[in-house]
């Protein structure tokens, strides 16, 4: 993978990652840590068999319930101004029969700031083995795309048209001022299964532009909190990206320095405006005193507290 890719591809990556995180978090509780349900002792009574309802895509009961979820999503999205999420990601390539693993962290701040960070790791998601892999920073005026493998940073200035498109087509409309009618225009959302613990929602893109992002998505949404526990994105070749969310905080205080584009050490190559278009921009740019030549400044330190506590 190289850092020099199109702005359209960068915006698509941000759309897929943030929209799914923000969309499911918009109807969730505040600052919850997502964890597995406790299991009964080995010598205790067997748990009751959960009630399960399976729906086909055209079941009127499922459509009515899905409409309720979308209406609640729209209502609650107006209350969200910032978001922090932590997750595990597993990519599977069915042709090459390969799996890759990542630890991820995301930040969003209204009206147009975002950070998405991935670190590669092993199949156990061991944080001690995590290494910088890829990062996207939206400063409002620019998108900074960091690729650790080739030590490149590609900076895309956002003109007026791109800024408007990023706001309309990127992740932020799913989180801030979400409109159910607009979501229905772009996606068909089907409630496919419901049990005592969760809703299983299928998301199908309705336009060619959205199908560039994914062909199908499946979200497992916990009933108790309306927090996403799992998300799977499947492309036209049946390759998949599976996300397991370990933490989501709504409306945290986020360090504003996270949303500044930063030049790493001297061994990194910075490529500005690869399309060659002459645009004026006002980048949120900050130098990194004593930056390590083998990494970029990585705001992935542990977060203390939940909910409205600072993410620093």
TrEMBL record:
CDD domains: LolA (cd16325). Pfam families: LolA. Keywords: Lipoprotein, Signal. InterPro entries: LolA/LolB/LppX (IPR029046), OM_lipoprot_carrier_LolA-like (IPR004564). The keyword Signal applies. Residues 272-312 are annotated as: Disordered. It comes from the Bacteria. Residues 1-25 form the signal peptide. PANTHER family: OUTER-MEMBRANE LIPOPROTEIN CARRIER PROTEIN. This is Outer membrane lipoprotein carrier protein LolA.
């Amino acid at each position: 993978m190289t850092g020099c890719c199109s702005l359209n591809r960068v915006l698509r990556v941000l759309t897929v990652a943030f929209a799914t995180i923000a969309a499911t978090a918009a109807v969730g509780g505040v600052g919850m840590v997502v964890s597995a349900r406790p299991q009964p002792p080995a010598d205790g009574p067997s748990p009751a068999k959960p009630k399960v309802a399976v729906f086909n895509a055209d079941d009127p009961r499922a459509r009515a319930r899905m409409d309720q979820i979308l209406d609640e999503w729209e209502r609650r999205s107006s209350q969200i101004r910032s978001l922090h999420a932590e997750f595990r990601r597993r990519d599977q390539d069915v042709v090459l029969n390969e799996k890759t693993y990542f630890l991820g962290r995301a930040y969003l701040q209204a009206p147009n700031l975002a950070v998405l960070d991935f670190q590669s790791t092993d199949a156990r998601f061991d944080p001690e083995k995590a290494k910088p892999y890829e990062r996207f920073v939206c400063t409002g005026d620019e998108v900074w795309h960091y690729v650790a493998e080739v030590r490149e940073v590609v900076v895309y200035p956002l003109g007026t048209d791109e800024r408007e498109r990023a706001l309309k087509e990127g992740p932020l409309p799913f989180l801030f001022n979400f409109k159910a009618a607009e979501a229905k225009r772009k996606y068909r959302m089907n409630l496919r299964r419901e049990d005592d613990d969760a809703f299983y929602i299928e998301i199908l893109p309705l336009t060619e532009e959205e199908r560039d992002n994914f062909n199908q998505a499946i979200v497992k949404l916990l009933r108790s909190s309306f927090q996403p526990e799992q998300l799977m994105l499947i492309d036209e070749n049946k390759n998949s990206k599976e996300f397991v969310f370990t933490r989501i905080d709504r409306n945290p205080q986020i360090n504003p320095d996270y949303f500044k584009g930063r030049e790493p050490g001297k061994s990194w190559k910075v490529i500005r405006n690869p399309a060659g278009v002459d645009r004026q921009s006002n980048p949120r740019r900050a130098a990194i005193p004593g930056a390590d030549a083998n990494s970029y400044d990585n705001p992935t330190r542990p977060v203390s507290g939940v909910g409205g506590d600072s993410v620093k």
